[in-house]
Design goal:
Elements (H helix, E strand, L loop, with lengths): L1 H23 L13 E6 L5 E6 L19
Antiparallel strand pairs: 1-2
């Protein structure tokens, strides 16, 4: 039973170290956000498919894992 508790403790210690490293990692800064075009397939009246390329704006449309920036210091 001691080996089981040691394995559980080692697992939680590993998770703690990984969480600390992930939290203290500096966030990458991008000076100019790039818009990534996306392709959409549109079906017309007669059932014919068309490929439409939509260019995105300056804002990103994906979710991030951080809700606020980490304070420096």
């Amino acid at each position: 039973m001691r080996n089981v508790w040691a394995a559980v403790l080692a697992t939680w210690a590993l998770f703690g170290v990984l969480a600390l490293l992930a939290w203290t990692r500096p966030q990458p800064t991008a000076n100019t956000p790039q818009s990534i075009p996306s392709a959409v397939v549109v079906t017309g009246k007669n059932g014919q498919s068309h490929l439409v390329v939509v260019k995105g704006g300056a804002t990103s449309s994906h979710a991030t894992t951080r809700t606020s920036p980490v304070p420096a210091g």
